Inverse folding.
Protein backbone atom coordinates (compact mmCIF):
# COMPACT_ATOMS: atom_id res chain seq x y z
CA UNK A 1 0.00 0.00 0.00
CA UNK A 2 1.23 3.48 -0.76
CA UNK A 3 1.76 5.49 2.41
CA UNK A 4 -0.31 8.66 2.36
CA UNK A 5 1.40 11.53 4.10
CA UNK A 6 -1.13 13.09 6.49
CA UNK A 7 -1.19 16.85 6.76
CA UNK A 8 -1.97 18.57 10.06
CA UNK A 9 -5.18 20.57 10.09
CA UNK A 10 -5.10 21.29 13.87
CA UNK A 11 -2.72 23.95 15.14
CA UNK A 12 -1.60 23.16 18.70
CA UNK A 13 -1.30 25.78 21.50
CA UNK A 14 2.50 25.57 21.22
CA UNK A 15 2.33 26.53 17.59
CA UNK A 16 -0.16 29.34 18.29
CA UNK A 17 2.28 30.72 20.84
CA UNK A 18 5.19 30.41 18.39
CA UNK A 19 3.23 32.28 15.70
CA UNK A 20 2.33 35.11 18.07
CA UNK A 21 5.92 35.44 19.29
CA UNK A 22 7.33 35.34 15.78
CA UNK A 23 4.98 38.11 14.65
CA UNK A 24 5.87 40.23 17.66
CA UNK A 25 9.54 39.69 16.87
CA UNK A 26 8.91 41.07 13.38
CA UNK A 27 8.78 37.89 11.28
CA UNK A 28 6.84 38.14 8.06
CA UNK A 29 3.59 36.21 7.69
CA UNK A 30 4.82 34.50 4.51
CA UNK A 31 7.92 33.19 6.29
CA UNK A 32 5.80 31.88 9.16
CA UNK A 33 3.57 30.23 6.60
CA UNK A 34 6.55 28.58 4.94
CA UNK A 35 7.77 27.12 8.25
CA UNK A 36 4.31 25.75 8.96
CA UNK A 37 4.04 24.18 5.50
CA UNK A 38 7.50 22.65 6.00
CA UNK A 39 6.21 21.17 9.25
CA UNK A 40 3.26 19.51 7.58
CA UNK A 41 0.42 21.94 8.31
CA UNK A 42 -2.11 22.58 5.58
CA UNK A 43 -2.05 25.99 3.97
CA UNK A 44 -5.60 26.70 5.11
CA UNK A 45 -4.92 25.82 8.78
CA UNK A 46 -1.68 27.82 8.71
CA UNK A 47 -3.26 30.98 7.34
CA UNK A 48 -6.17 30.68 9.77
CA UNK A 49 -3.76 30.55 12.71
CA UNK A 50 -1.64 33.42 11.36
CA UNK A 51 -4.73 35.55 10.72
CA UNK A 52 -6.03 34.87 14.23
CA UNK A 53 -2.70 35.93 15.72
CA UNK A 54 -2.62 39.10 13.60
CA UNK A 55 -6.17 40.03 14.67
CA UNK A 56 -5.39 39.43 18.34
CA UNK A 57 -2.16 41.41 18.36
CA UNK A 58 -1.29 43.46 15.32
CA UNK A 59 2.47 44.06 15.20
CA UNK A 60 3.16 47.21 17.21
CA UNK A 61 5.28 48.86 14.56
CA UNK A 62 2.71 48.53 11.75
CA UNK A 63 1.87 52.22 11.64
CA UNK A 64 -0.02 53.54 8.62
CA UNK A 65 2.51 55.30 6.46
CA UNK A 66 5.21 52.71 7.04
CA UNK A 67 6.08 51.30 3.67
CA UNK A 68 6.96 47.64 3.31
CA UNK A 69 10.19 47.00 1.45
CA UNK A 70 9.90 45.61 -2.04
CA UNK A 71 13.13 43.81 -2.62
CA UNK A 72 12.81 43.42 -6.33
CA UNK A 73 14.88 43.64 -9.48
CA UNK A 74 12.38 46.29 -10.68
CA UNK A 75 13.33 49.91 -10.11
CA UNK A 76 11.80 51.80 -7.17
CA UNK A 77 9.33 54.64 -7.63
CA UNK A 78 5.93 55.14 -9.16
CA UNK A 79 7.23 55.60 -12.70
CA UNK A 80 9.90 53.35 -14.19
CA UNK A 81 12.09 54.38 -17.11
CA UNK A 82 11.92 51.60 -19.69
CA UNK A 83 14.18 53.34 -22.19
CA UNK A 84 11.75 54.60 -24.81
CA UNK A 85 8.72 54.68 -22.49
CA UNK A 86 7.81 55.66 -18.95
CA UNK A 87 5.91 52.85 -17.29
CA UNK A 88 3.63 53.52 -14.33
CA UNK A 89 3.50 51.15 -11.36
CA UNK A 90 -0.10 50.36 -10.38
CA UNK A 91 0.46 47.79 -7.60
CA UNK A 92 3.37 46.09 -5.90
CA UNK A 93 3.34 42.92 -3.81
CA UNK A 94 6.43 42.13 -1.70
CA UNK A 95 6.18 38.35 -1.60
CA UNK A 96 5.91 36.79 -4.01
CA UNK A 97 7.47 39.71 -5.89
CA UNK A 98 4.68 40.90 -8.21
CA UNK A 99 3.98 44.24 -9.86
CA UNK A 100 1.20 45.50 -12.10
CA UNK A 101 2.56 47.96 -14.66
CA UNK A 102 0.63 50.38 -16.85
CA UNK A 103 1.57 51.74 -20.25
CA UNK A 104 4.05 49.02 -21.21
CA UNK A 105 2.64 48.76 -24.76
CA UNK A 106 0.68 51.32 -26.78
CA UNK A 107 -2.72 50.36 -28.27
CA UNK A 108 -1.08 50.36 -31.73
CA UNK A 109 1.66 47.99 -30.57
CA UNK A 110 -0.96 45.67 -29.04
CA UNK A 111 -2.90 45.59 -32.31
CA UNK A 112 0.29 45.01 -34.30
CA UNK A 113 1.25 42.03 -32.11
CA UNK A 114 -2.22 40.50 -32.46
CA UNK A 115 -2.06 40.90 -36.22
CA UNK A 116 1.46 39.57 -36.57
CA UNK A 117 0.76 36.54 -34.41
CA UNK A 118 -2.57 35.67 -36.04
CA UNK A 119 -0.70 34.40 -39.12
CA UNK A 120 1.37 31.84 -37.24
CA UNK A 121 -0.70 30.67 -34.29
CA UNK A 122 -0.53 27.02 -33.35
CA UNK A 123 -1.61 25.06 -30.29
CA UNK A 124 0.54 25.95 -27.25
CA UNK A 125 2.68 23.29 -25.58
CA UNK A 126 4.16 22.69 -22.13
CA UNK A 127 7.51 21.14 -21.18
CA UNK A 128 7.09 17.40 -20.54
CA UNK A 129 8.28 16.50 -16.99
CA UNK A 130 10.08 13.35 -18.16
CA UNK A 131 11.58 14.01 -21.57
CA UNK A 132 11.63 17.82 -21.64
CA UNK A 133 9.93 17.92 -25.03
CA UNK A 134 7.32 20.55 -25.86
CA UNK A 135 4.04 18.67 -25.60
CA UNK A 136 0.37 19.56 -26.20
CA UNK A 137 -1.57 19.10 -22.93
CA UNK A 138 -5.01 19.99 -21.58
CA UNK A 139 -3.54 22.18 -18.84
CA UNK A 140 -2.73 24.80 -21.46
CA UNK A 141 -5.43 25.39 -24.06
CA UNK A 142 -4.26 28.42 -25.98
CA UNK A 143 -2.76 29.06 -29.38
CA UNK A 144 0.71 30.52 -29.49
CA UNK A 145 3.22 32.18 -31.79
CA UNK A 146 6.92 32.49 -31.05
CA UNK A 147 9.03 35.46 -32.11
CA UNK A 148 12.80 35.07 -32.26
CA UNK A 149 14.60 37.88 -30.44
CA UNK A 150 14.72 41.04 -32.57
CA UNK A 151 13.17 39.20 -35.51
CA UNK A 152 11.48 42.36 -36.77
CA UNK A 153 11.38 46.02 -35.80
CA UNK A 154 8.50 45.84 -33.36
CA UNK A 155 9.87 42.71 -31.68
CA UNK A 156 13.31 44.34 -31.38
CA UNK A 157 11.78 47.49 -29.87
CA UNK A 158 9.76 45.56 -27.31
CA UNK A 159 12.66 43.20 -26.47
CA UNK A 160 14.77 46.29 -25.71
CA UNK A 161 12.03 47.94 -23.62
CA UNK A 162 11.35 44.78 -21.63
CA UNK A 163 15.06 44.29 -20.95
CA UNK A 164 15.30 47.86 -19.59
CA UNK A 165 12.18 47.33 -17.48
CA UNK A 166 13.23 43.96 -16.07
CA UNK A 167 16.84 45.13 -15.67
CA UNK A 168 18.26 42.03 -17.31
CA UNK A 169 20.26 41.88 -20.56
CA UNK A 170 18.27 41.18 -23.71
CA UNK A 171 20.17 37.95 -24.33
CA UNK A 172 18.85 36.51 -21.06
CA UNK A 173 15.38 36.58 -22.59
CA UNK A 174 13.55 33.84 -24.44
CA UNK A 175 11.86 35.01 -27.63
CA UNK A 176 8.52 36.73 -27.09
CA UNK A 177 5.59 34.33 -27.02
CA UNK A 178 2.15 35.60 -28.08
CA UNK A 179 -0.82 33.59 -26.81
CA UNK A 180 -4.45 33.72 -27.78
CA UNK A 181 -7.15 32.12 -25.64
CA UNK A 182 -10.66 31.60 -27.03
CA UNK A 183 -13.74 30.88 -24.92
CA UNK A 184 -12.84 28.14 -22.41
CA UNK A 185 -9.13 28.63 -23.10
CA UNK A 186 -7.00 28.54 -19.95
CA UNK A 187 -3.58 27.86 -18.51
CA UNK A 188 -3.92 25.92 -15.29
CA UNK A 189 -1.79 26.94 -12.28
CA UNK A 190 1.91 26.25 -12.83
CA UNK A 191 5.36 27.60 -12.10
CA UNK A 192 7.27 29.32 -14.87
CA UNK A 193 10.58 28.01 -13.52
CA UNK A 194 11.78 24.55 -14.48
CA UNK A 195 11.40 22.09 -11.61
CA UNK A 196 15.02 21.05 -10.95
CA UNK A 197 13.83 17.60 -9.82
CA UNK A 198 12.17 16.85 -13.19
CA UNK A 199 14.37 14.97 -15.64
CA UNK A 200 12.83 16.93 -18.49
CA UNK A 201 14.04 20.25 -17.05
CA UNK A 202 17.71 19.42 -17.60
CA UNK A 203 18.09 20.34 -21.29
CA UNK A 204 16.35 23.65 -20.60
CA UNK A 205 18.52 24.39 -17.56
CA UNK A 206 21.67 23.57 -19.52
CA UNK A 207 20.87 26.36 -21.99
CA UNK A 208 20.69 29.70 -20.18
CA UNK A 209 20.03 28.30 -16.72
CA UNK A 210 16.88 28.73 -14.68
CA UNK A 211 14.06 31.10 -15.53
CA UNK A 212 14.02 33.88 -12.92
CA UNK A 213 11.36 36.43 -13.91
CA UNK A 214 8.30 36.78 -16.14
CA UNK A 215 6.57 39.72 -17.79
CA UNK A 216 3.08 39.02 -19.15
CA UNK A 217 1.86 41.87 -21.37
CA UNK A 218 -1.85 42.11 -22.12
CA UNK A 219 -2.82 42.80 -25.72
CA UNK A 220 -6.55 43.37 -25.20
CA UNK A 221 -9.29 43.88 -22.61
CA UNK A 222 -11.07 40.57 -21.97
CA UNK A 223 -14.88 40.71 -21.84
CA UNK A 224 -15.19 38.10 -19.06
CA UNK A 225 -12.88 35.59 -17.37
CA UNK A 226 -9.24 35.22 -18.36
CA UNK A 227 -7.82 36.71 -15.17
CA UNK A 228 -4.24 35.86 -14.27
CA UNK A 229 -4.55 34.25 -10.85
CA UNK A 230 -2.03 33.48 -8.07
CA UNK A 231 -3.97 30.89 -6.03
CA UNK A 232 -1.43 30.72 -3.17
CA UNK A 233 -1.97 34.40 -2.37
CA UNK A 234 -5.59 34.71 -3.55
CA UNK A 235 -4.61 37.37 -6.07
CA UNK A 236 -6.40 37.92 -9.35
CA UNK A 237 -5.36 40.37 -12.08
CA UNK A 238 -7.94 41.48 -14.65
CA UNK A 239 -6.34 41.88 -18.11
CA UNK A 240 -6.15 45.42 -19.45
CA UNK A 241 -4.73 46.30 -22.83
CA UNK A 242 -1.20 47.74 -22.64
CA UNK A 243 -0.62 46.71 -19.02
CA UNK A 244 1.77 44.03 -17.81
CA UNK A 245 2.14 41.76 -14.84
CA UNK A 246 5.69 41.33 -13.60
CA UNK A 247 6.82 38.62 -11.20
CA UNK A 248 10.13 37.13 -10.13
CA UNK A 249 10.88 33.87 -8.42
CA UNK A 250 14.62 33.61 -7.75
CA UNK A 251 15.29 33.94 -4.04
CA UNK A 252 18.53 33.88 -2.00
CA UNK A 253 20.53 30.65 -1.94
CA UNK A 254 19.17 29.43 -5.25
CA UNK A 255 15.68 28.84 -3.86
CA UNK A 256 12.66 29.38 -6.08
CA UNK A 257 9.50 31.04 -4.81
CA UNK A 258 6.59 28.55 -4.69
CA UNK A 259 4.19 31.42 -3.99
CA UNK A 260 4.52 32.37 -7.68
CA UNK A 261 2.18 29.52 -8.62
CA UNK A 262 -0.09 31.18 -11.19
CA UNK A 263 -2.40 30.48 -14.11
CA UNK A 264 -4.74 31.97 -16.67
CA UNK A 265 -8.39 31.47 -15.71
CA UNK A 266 -10.74 30.25 -18.47
CA UNK A 267 -12.01 32.96 -20.79
CA UNK A 268 -15.82 33.03 -20.57
CA UNK A 269 -16.56 35.82 -23.06
CA UNK A 270 -14.50 37.26 -25.88
CA UNK A 271 -10.84 36.47 -26.43
CA UNK A 272 -7.65 36.99 -24.47
CA UNK A 273 -4.33 37.92 -26.07
CA UNK A 274 -1.04 38.18 -24.20
CA UNK A 275 2.64 38.36 -25.05
CA UNK A 276 5.05 36.89 -22.51
CA UNK A 277 8.78 37.35 -21.86
CA UNK A 278 10.58 34.77 -19.72
CA UNK A 279 14.04 35.78 -18.49
CA UNK A 280 16.86 33.34 -17.68
CA UNK A 281 19.70 33.67 -15.20
CA UNK A 282 22.33 33.59 -17.96
CA UNK A 283 22.74 34.57 -21.60
CA UNK A 284 20.89 32.24 -23.86
CA UNK A 285 20.91 31.67 -27.60
CA UNK A 286 17.13 31.97 -27.97
O1 LIG B 1 -2.62 33.60 -19.41
C1 LIG B 1 -2.21 33.98 -18.33
O2 LIG B 1 -2.81 34.87 -17.71
C2 LIG B 1 -1.00 33.37 -17.73
C3 LIG B 1 0.07 33.09 -18.74
C4 LIG B 1 1.26 32.43 -18.15
O3 LIG B 1 1.22 31.89 -17.10
C5 LIG B 1 2.54 32.44 -18.88
O4 LIG B 1 2.59 32.97 -19.99
O5 LIG B 1 3.53 31.90 -18.32
FE1 LIG C 1 3.16 31.14 -16.51
Amino acid sequence: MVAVERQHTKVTPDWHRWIAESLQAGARAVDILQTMLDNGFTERASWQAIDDALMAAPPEDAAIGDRPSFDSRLADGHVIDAGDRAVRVVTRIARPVVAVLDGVLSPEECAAFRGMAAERLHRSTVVHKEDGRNTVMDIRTSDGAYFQRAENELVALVDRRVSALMRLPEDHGEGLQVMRYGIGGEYQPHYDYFDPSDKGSQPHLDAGGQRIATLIMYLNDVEAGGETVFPRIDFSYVPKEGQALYFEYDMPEGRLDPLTLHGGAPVTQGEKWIVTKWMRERAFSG
Remarks:
- The chain has two domains: 1-63, 79-280.
- The first strand starts at residue 79 and ends at 81.
